Amino acid sequence: MVNDKSLLTTFVNPCPNYTMGKINGFTNYSEAKILGYGSMEPLGNALYAPQVIANLISVSQLTDNGFEVRILGDRCISTKSNSKHESSILPVSQSVQNTN
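Predicted structure:
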């Protein structure tokens, strides 16, 4: 999920007069509206919700797309072999909690 439409290589707004859904949490408002979706290389599809306070990444979406994901302290390291996106390091949000 992204809050910046420019990160999407394609964008679809299937319901210009309506939202596709709403999200609670990760926003300064009571809820964030999903206004569309698009493609985000090399990750695949992503929802566009401009009111979320941070871009959210799905670990299962990363692994489904061939990435290996390791969380080391406050860092998330995602690696994909045979790609120009060999390795990237992302800070882990303090507001993300383990749901186990």
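Summary: The radius of gyration is 14 Å.
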